[in-house]
Amino acid sequence: MRKPLSVKQFNEYIKSNIKHDPIFQRINLIGELCNIRINNYHLYFSLKEGNDLIDVVIYYYEDKEINFDFSPGKEVIIKGNLSFNNYSSKLVIIVNEVEDVGISKEFLEFLKMKEEFKSKGYFDKENKKPIPKLVKKIGLITSKDGAAIMDFLAMINSKANDIHIYLDPVKVQGDDAEVLIANAIRTLDNLSLDVIVITRGGGSNEDLSSFNKRKIIEAVFAAKTPIISAIGHNIDTTLIDYTSDLSLQTPTEVGSYLISDYVDYEKKIINKFDKAESLIKNTIVMTELKLKVLDAKIKKSSPAKLTEDKINALSSLNQEINKAIKNVFSYNENKFKNLAIKLDYVEKLIDVRKQHFEIKFDEKNVYSSHSLTEGDQIELIFVDGKLKARIING
């Protein structure tokens, strides 16, 4: 039994055989350009024929004498050597020369079909069906094993949890993908769904070539249900992007688009609840205030309150009258006391004055009226002074 080779030994064996085989060192191929990209001054692309591909690289292509633009659909002849990459286990042709042959037959057929669909109105805006808001039923056409389905469902379930997904799993590339995708579109179109999403997780232009096929484009255009395409590439590079009612790039983006109305709706509902709550609180406060005012008016206008107010008023008036009477009696009593004091003083004064009163005539005291005649000059002597007087009638 032979000893097993290690992975490194096996890769080195393949690389060595390719390197020393003259067939692989003088390669001369013709094919259609696709999957063109530039990275670190190197030009990477693929040559294709139908569904067959081979990877190609031109190192430091700007230093090479290449006098035409690389664009998808062109047919070229390349000359170079085959190389094997140990790390990726891929075969790649390292190109030394490139010759422009012209546009390939396959690409010309694509352009012809594109022009045909355009002339029939497949790409016209007026034929686009509007995408409904707040979708509840979504048809999903994608591979059951790809990342696209997980990305799409993760985004949908991040917000809306009452959306129903109707999955029709299909192959999204390969010879039978065209028929499978077209049949899935017709099947889901009969389920009265809100929208149908056709998606995949990206890939090269050749991986996406199924979405340029006639049966798929015709099924999309004929569908009554709005269709969104999101096949993981730059927009408008396949015919399905022109034909679908809305074209987005990734499964995540289309999922986000479909739940955006739910996010806006949720914000509006929360805003309305906040306004309603504020209105209810204000209404309660105003109602309580009105009830307090009304209660005060009722208490103020009630018979019991009026009677109580009258009684209180009469009681206050009675107290004021009694107080006034007391004040009058007290005032008069004090006044009488003062008058009595003054009268007593006057009486005493009179008694004193009686005791100290004299009448003199010719400097002699007069004690009887018979001692005086008419015309006599007399002197009246009081306690506090003297007066002179004349007898008028005696």
From TrEMBL:
Residue ranges constituting the Exonuclease VII large subunit C-terminal domain according to the UniProt record: 122-346
Entry protein name: Exodeoxyribonuclease 7 large subunit
Domain OB-fold nucleic acid binding: 5-98
Domain of life: Bacteria
Reactions listed under catalytic activity: Exonucleolytic cleavage in either 5'- to 3'- or 3'- to 5'-direction to yield nucleoside 5'-phosphates
First and last residue of the signal peptide: none
A GO term for molecular function: nucleic acid binding
Gene responsible for this protein: xseA
The enzyme's E.C. designation: 3.1.11.6
Coiled coil (UniProt feature): none
UniProt entry keywords in alphabetical sequence: Cytoplasm, Exonuclease, Hydrolase, Nuclease
GO cellular component, one term: exodeoxyribonuclease VII complex
Pfam entry (one): tRNA_anti_2
InterPro entries reported for this sequence: Exonuc_VII_L, Exonuc_VII_lsu_C, OB-fold_nuc-bd_dom
Biological function: Bidirectionally degrades single-stranded DNA into large acid-insoluble oligonucleotides, which are then degraded further into small acid-soluble oligonucleotides.
Subunit structure: Heterooligomer composed of large and small subunits.
Family, similarity comment: Belongs to the XseA family.
GO BP annotation list: DNA catabolic process
Top-level class of the enzyme under EC nomenclature: hydrolase
Cell compartment(s), UniProt: Cytoplasm
Matches recorded under PANTHER family: EXODEOXYRIBONUCLEASE 7 LARGE SUBUNIT
